[in-house]
Design a protein that fits this description.
Number of helices: 9
CATH superfamily of the largest domain: Murein tetrapeptidase LD-carboxypeptidase, N-terminal domain
Structural class: alpha/beta
Distance between the termini: 14 Å
Strand content: 15-25%
CATH class of the largest domain: Alpha Beta
CATH architecture of the largest domain: 3-Layer(aba) Sandwich
Largest sheet: 8 strands, mixed
Mean pLDDT: 97
Shape: globular
Strand order of the largest sheet: 7-15-14-9-10-11-12-8
CATH topology of the largest domain: Rossmann fold
Low-confidence stretches: none
Length: 309
């Protein structure tokens, strides 16, 4: 795997919108928040565009801006302004040679999972599941420390939840392998396509938000039927923010994920604080992960990566 060049003050961050358009903040506030932190910023056209009411410009524009950000030698990192919907729509418009030949820090989560999976598998690029650019406007200390530890250093990373958030062991044991995954809905969307997630001998990470529990059950079962839990070495369930029951007697998310843990008897933990939660921790998708479910420890190591200087 390729570890992109580490980010330092004075570097230029390209802001792109491969999914939905920005609604929760002003673009100028996002730009100012990064400039105030010591970075230069280039905002791409997709961030200002709207298509269909829910996309940040049409598919061709979103793919074009993403590729331009990677191809521009003056851009040091590419941050997605938000998630939403639309990243999977541009996969067949991307020239992956551009991404592969211009490896850069790539940051985002939620719908951006579609791009994480593709860049990990087609470009051998370590990418970062962490806060979208709009979060920099009011980012808390934990989120910023976790992000910078991942993108500004190449040291071994011990993932620690925010204070007061417990990691739960669902099945004991230790394992290691590349960490892959992201948002449950987008992982499911990849199945049966050229971009289907490969979990063979890897550690599978899953998070979700704002779904009814029966929908979480349905998607988890789909991964089960597709052999994704069978193939992986271990499982990390992240945050499942606002996933709710229809009726009081319905199972909770904890019951669904525990059922998978007991079925497969592989090292499994729950409630790693990364996903749609605030604060949110960053994880390096594609990096080597060491999971000690017994002692609730998760570490990431870049020593197996080819580092870009």
């Amino acid at each position: 795997m390729i570890l992109p060049k580490r980010l330092k003050k004075g570097d230029t961050i390209g802001i792109v919108a491969p999914s939905g358009h920005l609604r929760e903040a002003k673009i100028e506030d996002v730009e100012k928040s990064l400039i105030d932190r010591g970075y230069k910023v280039k905002i791409y056209e997709s961030c200002y565009s709207v298509d269909r009411g829910y996309l940040s410009g049409n598919d061709e524009l979103r793919a074009k801006c993403l590729q331009e950000a990677f191809a521009d030698e003056n851009i040091d990192a590419v941050f997605c302004i938000r998630g939403g919907y639309g990243a999977a729509r541009i996969l067949d418009l991307i020239d992956f040679d551009i991404i592969r030949n211009n490896p850069k820090i790539f940051l985002g989560l939620s719908d951006i999972t579609a791009l994480h999976i593709a860049f990990n598998q087609k470009c051998d690029l370590v990418t970062y599941h962490g806060p979208v650019a709009r979060r920099f406007v009011d980012m808390d200390d934990y989120t910023e420390r976790s992000l910078l530890k991942n993108i500004a250093t190449d040291e071994r990373i011990n993932f620690e939840n925010p204070e007061g958030e417990e990691i739960f062991t669902l099945y004991e044991g230790k394992c290691q392998g590349q960490i892959v995954g992201g948002n449950l809905s987008l992982i499911n969307t990849s199945l049966g396509t050229e971009y289907e997630i490969d979990t063979k001998d890897k550690i599978l990470f899953i998070e979700e938000t704002s779904e009814y529990v029966y929908n979480v059950d349905k998607m988890i079962n789909h991964l089960h039927m597709a052999g994704k839990f069978r193939d992986c070495k271990g499982i990390i369930f992240g945050d499942f923010k606002d996933c709710r029951k229809v009726r009081d007697e319905d199972w909770a998310v904890e019951d669904i994920v525990n059922e998978i843990a007991q079925r497969y008897k592989k090292p499994t933990i729950y409630n790693l604080q990364t996903g749609h939660c605030i604060p949110v921790g960053t994880i390096p998708l594609g990096a080597m992960c060491y999971l000690d479910a017994t002692n609730k420890k998760v570490e990431f190591d870049y020593s197996n990566c080819s580092c870009v200087k």
